[in-house]
Amino acid sequence: MEQEVYSLCFMCSVRCPIKVQAKDGQVRWIEGNPHVAGMEGSLCPRGAAGISLLYDQQRVQTPLIRVGNRGEGQWRKATWDEALDYVAEKLQKVIETYGGHSVALGERTQLATHVSKTFMKAIGSPNHFTHDALCKGSVNTACRSLFGYTDGQMGIDYKNTKHIVLYGRNLFEAISVKEVNNLLKAMEGGAKMTYIDPRVTVTATKAQRYWMVRPGTDLALNYALIHVIIKERLYDVAFVNRWVLGFSDLQEFVEPYTPEWAETETGIPAGEIVALAREISQDKPSVIFHYGYRGAHHVNEIHMRRSILMLNSLMGSVETKGGIFFKKGPGEVGGKPAAKLASQQFPKITVPRCDKVGTPDFPLPDPNHGTIQVLPFAILNEDPYPVKALIAYRLDPLMSIAQSALTKQALEKLDLIVAIDINYSDIAWYADVILPESTYLERTDCIQQANGLNPQMFLRKQVVPPRYDTREGAMILKQIGERIGIGHFFPYNSMEELVDWQLADTGFSQADFAAKGFVAYGKGPIFWDRADGLKLKTPSGKIEFRSSLLEDAGFESFPAYSPMPSPPENQFRLITGRLALHTHVSTQNNPYLNELCPENVAWINTQRATALGIKNNDEIEIASKCGSGRVKAFVTDLIHPEALFILHGFGHEAKRAARAYNRGISDSLLQENIYDKVGGSPAYHETFVTVKAA
Ligand code: SF4
Fold first, then answer.
1. Residue 1: predicted pLDDT
2. CB 464 within 8 A of CB 443
3. 599 Cα: distance to centroid of ligand 1 (angstroms)
4. Structure confidence by residue, pLDDT tens digits, 454-472
5. Which of 10, 11, 111, 592 to mutate to test the pocket of ligand 1 (most atoms within 8 A of CB)?
6. Which of 93, 114, 176, 521 falls between 20 and 30 A from 161, CA-CA?
7. Among residues 494, 497, 512, which one has the least CA distance to residue 457?
């Protein structure tokens, strides 16, 4: 029997709408949902490799309970009842001894996140973490400091832009299909791209203007751009006068940051900085300074992100076609969103988060996501209290948090580690119990509330039955919950029932998704009135260059720029990034993707390599304060001499993920666990490394 099912990809967190063809219970083909603008049949390579995830024999096939030491890889197969009873008993003991708050749960943000949050609220723990802080914690804080909205509540109108500036946002390799297609359409229509990165990426090769910036100096560049834009009055005067608070403070602050000053710091000629400021202002307000992901990751990241958002605001490119906008929810058109389990009434939690987010010690990061890089310190120091159990739900702290040796030390102190995962991730390998999750093609999932210019809802629909003895994450958490006395917070017996529960008040039913895979609340894009109708959520109702969020917490809105140090002699600044073939740390063992990219290599500048006697393809040893490892060298002119680049996500230690095992080097082994103490992002690019021929 042949079927066509509309669903959502989950080979990465973007969740592209897809159409899946199956025959006799086997998935044959996946393509982008043709009914969704920007998808129109296309997928990225990882999305296309979803089939090989489904049929991969190296994924976790049954529940497993550890029998040897942690990390040794000795397992016994268990039935679901046995594994769930085991987890419940251990968890109950931890909760009785140390309190519910001694349990932490970390996950990759996903459609069932409201279920995990429910689990944590029900046991009385504030320690729910998502991976968001690792990607963009300071972006979130920066957006709230200027607009009162998180970055997740904001969007970018690529399709109508006339000029986009990307700071290390390697859009054509770290792919989101709709974003790429929409930007390509804009570029076909004449839109320009400026790309800034110490490394020549695929995106750099598509740009009209590429700057090989000195690593870590994006902020200096932005201050000089702002200096020129204000001095030459290139900004949108009416918009700034109406909406911006603190413009004159910014004007005074950037006075010393001239293009000539920035040339010394960044290596970009002053004349070119002036030229970009003049050129982009011609196209305002349909221009974008991209505020999200990558770029320089340093302890000053909050200010780097704020400077980008200030540039957008100066261009007036806020809530306008071709600029950035605030996402609209169903309420804008009189609709109701899908219900979330986490909105139920729970017992009040009186302890702070273990990462201290939301306390005077770490006031500004978003408590909805937490800062998981702080978890190892909280566990090791038992400060503010002992954390004794971790549920790692498709988030791998060992490969995602910098300084994996320290993370391992912290994990050793835990009484229980449970991994809910599809693959043998490194954290699964290190866990006490692995509860195998069904892939996205084998499960119906919670509703995706897709707010944007035109609010919609999407449904991930099961295409084929689970191939192995796996379950949906939302069912797994419910079944643990039932065993520890919180089952009443999970009022469903199947994913279909949960979806019905979510849709009950929306006016839509599951049947409405059958024709196209989604439902729309309205008919077209909604922009607020820029003259008088921006619904900003800052205390002043304005775009706060002078930020009450920062200043009320005791931080400066405009701290003086600290020069970015060059690496000491014979050292490099370690920088990391992505390519189109892998998602973070989760796809390196995928049969198709592994074949295309089995390991990472270290990009090293030709002159620097020659001085060290290193030739292309030589094996080299990279060492930092935190660890060392070997990898092959890629000797090239396409990287700044101060930088050494490796792809994120390699160097896996789980032996049953045999294709990826011990291939390449892990960046988390080398990076130091330091972070932006204001915004909340890890400072991934603060680590210096030495390099020598192996
Ligand atoms: S960007 Fe690629 S991997 Fe991510 S959801 Fe879309 S198709 Fe899937």
1. 86
2. no
3. 21
4. 999 999 999 999 999 999 9
5. 11
6. 521
7. 512
Q: What is the pLDDT of residue 538?
A: 98
Residue reference for tokens 């690496």: 567
Q: Whose CA is nearest to atom 1 of ligand 1?
A: 176
> CA angle, 72 as apex, 70 and 77 as ends, to 5°?
85
Residue 33: pLDDT band (50, 70, 90) is very high
User: Amino acid identity, residue 395?
Assistant: L
**545 three-state secondary structure:** coil
Instruction: Band the pLDDT of 524: cuts 50, 70, 90.
Output: confident
Q: How far is the CA of 454 from the centre of ligand 1 (A)?
A: 21
Over 90: is that where the pLDDT of 104 sits?
A: yes
> Which positions ≥6 away from 18 have C-beta within 8 Å?
6, 7, 8, 9, 30, 31, 32, 33, 39, 43, 47, 517
Give the mutation target among 6, 175, 584 for probing the ligand 1 site: most ligand atoms within 8 A of CB. Answer: 175
CA distance 10 to 642: 36
pLDDT tens-digit profile of 339-390? Answer: 999 999 999 999 999 999 999 999 999 999 999 999 999 999 999 999 999 9
Decide if 151 contacts 140 (C-beta within 8 A): yes
CA–CA separation, 39 and 37 (whole Å): 6
The whole-angstrom separation of Cα 680 and Cα 364 is 8
Closest CA to 563 of 296, 269, 168, 216: 216
pLDDT digit string, tens, across residues 296-344: 789 999 999 999 999 999 999 999 999 999 999 999 999 999 999 999 9
- Residue type, position 307, single letter: S
Q: For a pLDDT cut of 90, what percent of the chain falls above it?
A: 98
pLDDT digit string (tens) for 486-500?
Answer: 999 999 999 999 999
Pairing label, strands 433-436, 416-421: parallel
**pLDDT by residue (tens digit) across 190-248?**
999 999 999 999 999 999 999 999 999 999 999 999 999 999 999 999 999 999 999 99
Pairing of strands 619-623, 518-520: unpaired
- DSSP for 456-473, written as a single string: EEE-----S--SSS-B-H
Which residue owns the Cα nearest ligand 1 atom 6?
A: 16
Nearest to 446 by CA among 119, 110, 131, 118: 110
- Which of 6, 8, 9 most suits a substitution to test ligand 1, by most atoms within 8 Å of the C-beta? 9
State the burial class of residue 399 (Cβ atoms within 10 Å of its Cβ: 0-12, 13-18, 19+): buried
Ramachandran bin of 397, using left for φ above 0, alpha for ψ from -120 to 50, beta for the remaining angles: alpha
Closest by alpha carbon to 198, among 604, 690, 679, 671?
Answer: 604
* pTM exceeds 0.90, yes or no: yes
In degrees and rounded to multiples of 5, residue 635 shows phi and psi of -90, 125
Report the separation in Å between the CA atom of 388 and the middle of ligand 1, taken as the mean of its atom positions. Answer: 35
Three-state secondary structure call for residue 362:
strand
Q: Which residues, at least 6 apart from 52, have a Cβ–Cβ distance to it below 8 Å?
A: 590, 591, 592, 593
* Opening angle at CA 138, ends 566 and 379, nearest 5: 95
> SS3 string of 478-505?
HHHHHHCCCHHHCCCCCHHHHHHHHHCC
* Nearest residue to 155 via CA among 15, 304, 327: 327
Q: If you take atom 4 of ligand 1, which residue's CA is the nearest one?
A: 12
Give the list of residues 6+ apart from residue 541 with CB closer than 8 angstroms, or none. none
Closest ligand 1 atom to 12 CA: 4
What is the chain's percent helix, strand, coil content, to nearest 5? 35, 20, 50
Q: What are the Cα distances from residue 581, in Å, to 219, 385, 440, 656?
A: 30, 41, 19, 21
